[in-house]
Structure formats: C-alpha cells, structure tokens
Amino acid sequence: MRPNFTFSFSMPDRPSLLERTRLWIACLLAAGSIPGLLSAQQGAARIKVEADRTTRPDEVHQVIAMIRGDATSIVGLRVPVEARVLGGVPQKGMDWSLVTWDREKMERSKQLLPKMIYGIGPVCVETIFKFQGKCYLLGSKVLPDQMMAQLIVQEFDPHSLVTKGGRELVQVPLERFGGATRPMPGAAIGFNATLSADSSQLCLSTDPENTSRPGATYVSLVFHKDLQLHWSNVLAFDQEPAGAELLQDLFDSEAVHWFLFRTMATKNPKDTGSPAIGIKLVRMDSSGQKMKDVELPGSAYVQDARMVLRPDGKLLFGGVWAERKMRNDRSKGMFVSSMNTGDLEWGAMKMVEFEKKVIEGHEELQRDMVVEDLLVMADGGLALLTDEHKLRTTQSSNFANKMVTRESYISGDLHILRTNRSGDKTWYTVIPRGLSLDSPHAGEPFALAFGDQLFVMMNDAAGNEELRKHKEPIPVIEKGGEAMVFDFKEDGSGRGKVALDERGQGYFLPGDRWILGPGEIGLLGSRDLGGKETFPVRVFIESGR
Fold it and tell me: What dotted CATH number matches 17-543?
C-alpha cells in the first residue's frame, strides 16, 4: 500500500512496507505479449487475473495509483519511474497522464494528459481517488503569503477522462508539515488517499515516504461523505525515537487512523543482548492520539508485525518474535493477538515457534524473518505469512573465473500459520524455496482468501513442486522460473500451479496494491524478475460454478 507504503536501522533491511501492499498476477499468452487471463481453480473459488494486453510493458513509466472508475472501467495515474514519490514533483513539465482500461479485459481504452487548474499559479498533482461514486484528481498549491497549503479536488469522467472545474477542499497551515521540511511553492506535498472500511469517510495523509522532504511529519485529514473536514491531526511520539519506520496504517469505519511503527532507541544496536527495536501502535482520531507498545511476555520481543481489521471491528495482529538473548538477526517464532480498540487493552498473545532450518546437518534458528501478509479468514481466524527477506552481499565467480561482488534481495522458505478465531493454531506449513534477485519486491509472496480457502501467490519454479514432494534441496532462483499460485484447503493441504510462464518473461511485482472493490485488487506485473518493465493487472476472486 499507495500497497499504495525512512529505514534508519539495520533490521530487517528491506524497502518500505508502504510501497508493499501485496498482490499481483498476470499470464503471458505468447512471446512479447502482455499477460491475459489466469484461472486457478481447485475448490469453491478461483483466482482470475487480467492484464493490459494492448500495450507493451514500459520501463520508462509506471502506474502509481489505480481506482475502479465504474462497473466497466479501471483508471490509473501513470508517471515517470523516477517520479515514484510524487512529493516535490510539480505538475508543470512532468510527463504524467490518466489512463483508463476496460475492466473486463484490462484493454487500454484511453490515455490523456489533463491539467489541474485553480486560481492563479500552478497546481501540483498528488494522487487520484474515488469517493461516494465520483472519481477525483487531488492537487495542492502552496500559498507562501498565507503560510498555507491549499488542497484542491477536480472531478473527472472515468471513460473520457474529461475533468470538471477544480474546487478548494481545505487549507492546511504549513507549520503542520514540520519546520524546515515545509512544502515549497510549486512542488507537490505528497498526500495519499484512503477510504474507511465502509467507504463512508476519506483520509488524506502524508508521511516521509510520500514526500521528497525526509523528516516531514505524519499529517492526517479526515473528511465526511460531503467532503467536509471532520478532523485533522499531526502524529507525535511520546519520546522521539532515534529512528522510526511506518510498517502499516489502517483507516477504520469509526474514522480512526491506526499506525504501526518499528522504532529504534539507538542507531547502533548490538548483535546480542537487549534489542534496540520496538513496535508501537498509534490510535489517532478527532480527540487526539494514544500510543501503545506491542509487547510479548517474558524475554520475548516483537521483530515485525502487521494488523488487520475483522468485520466485527476487532483489531487483530500477527508478527515475528525473538528472545532478547538471541542475535538480532535470528527469529524464534510467530505470534497472533487482538486488541480492544477502545481502551487499547491486549488480548491473549498466542505464540508458535518456527521450524528450525537445517544447514549441513545442523539445526539453526530462522534468520531475518519478516511478515509478508496477514489475512482474516471466514471463521474469524488469521492466516499469517512470514519468510526470510534481506538485502545481502554475495560473491561468485564470473565467466573469467574472477570473483564478483553482488548485492541481491534474498527470499527464503515461506512459513504459513493458520489460526482459529481464538488465535490457536489450526495448521502450520513451510514451503521451501529460495530466490536471489535484484528487485526488492519480486521475491515477496502475498495471499487472498475466500471462505476457508487460502490462495498464496509468489515467483517460484514449477519444478520445485516435485522436489518438495521428495524433500530434495530447492535451488536458488536468480532468473527464470515461473509465477505460482498455491491453493490451501481448510485442513492445510494444498498444491501449486503455474500462473505465469517464461514465454513472455512475465513475473509478479506485489510491491503495491490498490483495492478496486470487494475481492478485487489492482497491482503491477513485470516482464522479468528485475521488475523494470511493468504493466498493470487486475486480480479478483470468482466463486466456483
């Protein structure tokens, strides 16, 4: 998330999770073509994926936001790759455009470079969003004389992309964005748009990952159905940490903005002993903010965590834990818990130890484990996906038998924990795998759920299925392979099927995810594991027939 997502400490070394809300898939039908349709059906539901087949993958531009225009259209905001973070990029001179696709087949129907105009002076593009059935461009303008930032909305048609006149949404004092990091005239600020769980309220927010000004504050603006401002607030820590990484944020139906941070008490954490890492939860609403540590009993501590809202409003958590006596790069297990959203009181912490990895006949603790996805299942339980993910430096011999140093993102075995509504384990399985890639996102798995079915998607190799069956070693993938989808039943049994093949060099990039509707998500795919040539895809779950 925006998908749809600053790192000042060493554990774990990976890109911002604000850039990572998960889901992808595409299916290449012929060499040089763009992915078509995937149907992976093994039970009551199937995953279907459509991708833009009418346009060649582009390494110069990419889609950074996607919304469902109406029943038949999908709209995306397309910008140059170097403008991935729009904050600080003015509208003038930027090669950006709106694109609309046919929703059924994801065939591009129109591309247009509209202009945001309001008053005197340039308006900078922030993002696109859909609210109360209407599609909007969000823009901003810095008013230095008034020391205000003006937010502007401009409605557009999802088919013709023709825009109506702009109007002021709200003015925000520049001081709210923080001292020397205040937005500059002629530059975008870096706002994201998020709808509440019931789509009744809109949250516009900023954080340092959305702007070209590191150290900027976390600003939240919440609006009612009529786009009238409900409340605004600026996040502040009780005690400013040496470093903070925003792992995730959620906006619920009660107009509460939730934040989950990994904080660091010192910039030089030791290899062993008391860890300098902490996980903090922040609850922000019209009355202010409350902060709560995510803590485990005894000597255990949290290394990574995610949160998810259950339909009954319960806030659930899943994560990775270790013990304080261990090296900071070692991980002991997974945990799940719940929280009362009113008084921020924790429910029971349910903890499960990881299966140990075997290296040259010796058992070792898991290393550099992180949370990849967390889903609520139909019974109110959770599906928690964790794996090893780390940027590492390796050495290998080239064709001239000379040692070559290479940095790559390592992705290891996937550990899946399924719990019941009370948080007790119903099953736990491990999918052996290994990837060493240039792309930070191509090794990431993600999941979708339908009833008691759990679908897990990731770049892998079809031949690995047979190797796993016979418990043989899994080779590390550096290129090639296939995109796979695994279907897990209620009892934890499952198998994988090829989702993409290499005929068109198509792989998954689950680094960004945009919710298009119930069970419907937009994301990016790529022609290679490097993730340089991307294309938009639409993923949705279809019930069995």
Answer: 2.140.10
